[in-house]
Design goal:
Blueprint lengths: L19 H5 L2 E4 L2 E4 L4 E2 L6 H10 L13 E5 L5 H13 L5 E7 L5 H8 L6 H12 L4 E3 L3 E7 L2 H7 L4 E6 L13 H9 L1 E9 L4 H9 L3 E6 L6 E6 L1
Parallel strand pairs: 4-5, 4-8, 5-7, 8-9
Antiparallel strand pairs: 1-2, 2-3, 6-7, 9-11, 10-11
Helix pairs in contact: 2-3, 4-5, 6-7, 7-8
Length: 240
């Protein structure tokens, strides 16, 4: 199903909008896969990032089956925007009334040029990518369309998630590897994820680290380890 027409109504970001020079210097490339120099970790699978997103974050959260009007996804780590684009593509394909709500928490936003280079590998997402990138280039970190209400909240998630006033139906836990980016996997932050999840809500991550699963259990989730994507043997899914 084609996307619903875009109506532009972004909110300008006063600080922290994607900055070309600063963020470009923090990224190396393996082909068109960006690698965060700060964490020495790729933003998505070197094999197929879109397939990974569909396996880990969509299927891992029972999507699109669970989609319903007003559904809200929250995410730790916006990165290239691939997860948001895959989600809204799935939403439109499912033909759900109204927009998908998507909130992402990001401390180190990429430049728009870097996002576009990374996403160039997935032209099937262009119909959703192009208007999103136009909004980002205008300086906004919010996108409002008939298909998607997106809000990228800048800053340390350990500070921003506790202040968030909304609740998620599903979480995409997509920080860099816990060994390299432990801040996004701390028990205190996982507790806030649990606190901001609706009853019956879910979370999914590519990580199967024992301390991540334990933190999710302590946050009030029933946790299961299931087969991962590609060469990763396991991943984690959780239900509140």
């Amino acid at each position: 199903m084609p996307p619903k027409p875009l109506s532009r109504n972004g909110t300008k970001a006063s600080v922290g909008q994607p900055v070309e020079d600063n963020q470009h210097s923090q990224i190396d490339w393996r082909g068109d896969v960006p690698v965060a120099r700060r964490f020495d970790d790729p933003y998505f699978s070197l094999e197929n990032g879109l397939a990974e997103t569909r396996h880990v974050f969509l299927a891992g959260n029972g999507l699109p089956t669970r989609f319903r009007p007003g559904f809200h996804i929250a995410e730790l780590g916006f990165g290239t925007g691939l997860n948001a684009l895959a989600a809204v593509a799935s939403w439109d394909d499912a033909g759900i009334d109204g927009p998908l709500h998507f909130t992402s928490f990001e401390e180190f936003p990429m430049s728009v040029d870097a996002m576009e280079r990374a996403l160039s590998a997935y032209p099937e997402l262009d119909i959703w990518k192009v208007p999103m990138m136009e909004e980002f280039r205008s300086g906004t970190l919010k996108v409002r369309s008939n298909s998607l209400i997106l809000n990228v909240i800048l800053g340390d998630a350990r500070m921003t998630v506790p202040k968030w006033a909304q609740m998620a139906d599903a979480w995409f836990l997509d920080g860099f590897a816990p060994a390299k980016n432990p801040e996004l996997w701390e028990p205190g932050l996982m507790a806030e994820v649990g606190r901001h999840t609706k009853k019956g809500g879910t979370a999914a991550t590519y990580s199967a680290a024992g301390h991540v699963r334990s933190a999710l259990v302590d946050a009030g989730f029933d946790v299961e380890r299931i087969p991962g994507f590609g060469r990763k043997r396991h991943m984690t899914v959780a239900r509140k």
